[in-house]
Amino acid sequence: MAKVTIIGATGQVGTYSAHTISAIPHVSEILLFGRTGRENLLAGITQDLVDSFAACGTGMELGWTTDMEDIAESDIVVLSAGIPRKPGQDRLDLAIANARIVAEISRQIAEVSPSSMILVVTNPVDVMTSVALQYSGMDEQQVFGLGTHLDSMRLKSLIASYFKVHVSEVHTRIIGEHGESMVPLWSATTIGGIQISNLPAFSRIPIQDMVEMVRTGGENIIRNRGATIFGPGEAIATLVKTILGNENRILTVSAYVKSEVHDIGDVCIGVPARINRSGVFPVPIKIDPVEVKSFRESVEKIRSITGEVISILEKNGMPVDMR
Question: Does the reported pTM lie above 0.90?
Answer without folding.
Answer: yes
